């Protein structure tokens, strides 16, 4: 039977799809490219980075930026694939282990979160990279189901956690019921327990409630989650309702999960006064470290401390994600881990 590994398991690298002037990052391109370069250098202390660039000229620019950030060039890989945008979590490959223990990449469809944004080039990125040989001998299996990587969480032991509306959605998967989607995911991912949430969401999020902005597995028996304690906050009702749902969940042994709240940052607003989707559940695990999004916010220190206690054997590293949330996502959203054995 296939197995969908947890994010804390060994990785062969992290994929980043780089911004360029034809993406929504155009008005802050220099600033966000600096962030990507610093992130590539930071990740490469622990594992290789696959940098996906739109063409060879773009790759040369990216290579120079990463070198200027102080990264070891031997730790960097480069792939060429045209792109609409940069959300690698949602257009990147999802890895499973086969019955024989070999890595297998799944290429689910991506349609811009239900057609909100153009995604035709993004939907082809994984296949293009596989064709270029960047994944070596790792097989790639196309799946005719719209599924974004940020929509699903796993304990690595057959349990999948998701917000229902991010998969059971007529704009993503018309005419597919939850039962049908469960059967497809059981076959492709090897999961056999489904934990569905009906509540949860943070202001400014375009994904309809991706689980990686709300709740994350930190161990098979532990969930950390976005919590709001201010009744005047616009997110209070949904996050409180989600918290009650989490309290009702049970692990495979019938026990309640250990629930660890993450703080809510003081609202971060754009220049028009609109709230941006700042949150701490969007952290990224790499070999030996947990990378935590921060926002120059009073809650940053508490979030770093909480995640440090949840991952005591890993370095805890802050990444200033204020440029990212201007486009509706954060650290986990722009990255996709590649399981051990995938990168050539």
UniProtKB/TrEMBL annotation:
This is Agmatine deiminase. It comes from Thiocapsa roseopersicina. One of its GO terms (biological process) is putrescine biosynthetic process. SUPFAM superfamilies: Pentein. Keywords: Hydrolase. GO terms for molecular function: agmatine deiminase activity; protein-arginine deiminase activity. InterPro entries: Peptidyl-Arg-deiminase_porph. The keyword Hydrolase applies.
């Amino acid at each position: 039977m296939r197995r969908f590994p947890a994010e804390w398991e060994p990785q062969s690298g992290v994929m980043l799809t780089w911004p360029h002037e034809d993406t929504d990052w155009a008005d802050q391109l220099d600033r966000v490219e600096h962030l990507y370069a610093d992130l590539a250098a930071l990740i490469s202390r622990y594992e290789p980075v696959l940098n996906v660039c739109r063409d060879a000229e773009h790759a040369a620019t990216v290579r120079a930026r990463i070198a200027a950030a102080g990264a070891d060039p031997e730790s960097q890989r480069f792939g060429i694939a045209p792109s609409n945008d940069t959300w690698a979590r949602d257009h990147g490959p999802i890895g499973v282990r086969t019955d024989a223990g070999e890595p297998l990449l799944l290429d689910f469809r991506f349609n811009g979160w239900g057609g909100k944004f153009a995604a035709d080039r993004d939907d082809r990125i994984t296949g293009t990279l596989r064709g270029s040989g960047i994944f070596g001998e790792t097989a790639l299996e196309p799946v005719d189901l719209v599924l974004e990587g940020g929509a699903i969480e796993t304990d690595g032991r057959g349990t999948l956690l998701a917000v229902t509306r991010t998969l059971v959605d007529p704009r993503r998967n018309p005419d597919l019921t939850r039962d049908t989607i469960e059967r497809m995911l059981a076959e492709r991912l090897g999961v056999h327990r489904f934990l569905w949430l009906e509540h949860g969401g943070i202001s400014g999020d375009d994904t309809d409630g991706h689980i990686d902005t709300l709740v994350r597995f930190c161990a098979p028996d532990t969930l950390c989650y976005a919590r709001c304690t201010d009744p005047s906050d616009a997110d209070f009702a949904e996050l409180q309702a989600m918290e009650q749902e989490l309290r009702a969940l049970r692990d495979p042994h019938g026990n309640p999960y250990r629930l660890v709240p993450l703080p809510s940052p003081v609202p971060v607003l754009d220049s028009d006064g609109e709230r941006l989707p700042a949150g701490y559940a969007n952290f990224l695990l790499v070999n030996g470290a947990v990378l935590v999004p921060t926002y120059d916010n009073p809650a940053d220190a508490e979030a770093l401390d909480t995640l440090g206690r949840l991952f005591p054997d890993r370095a805890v590293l802050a990444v200033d994600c204020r440029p990212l949330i201007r486009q509706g996502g954060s650290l986990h959203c722009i990255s996709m881990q590649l399981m051990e054995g995938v990168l050539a």
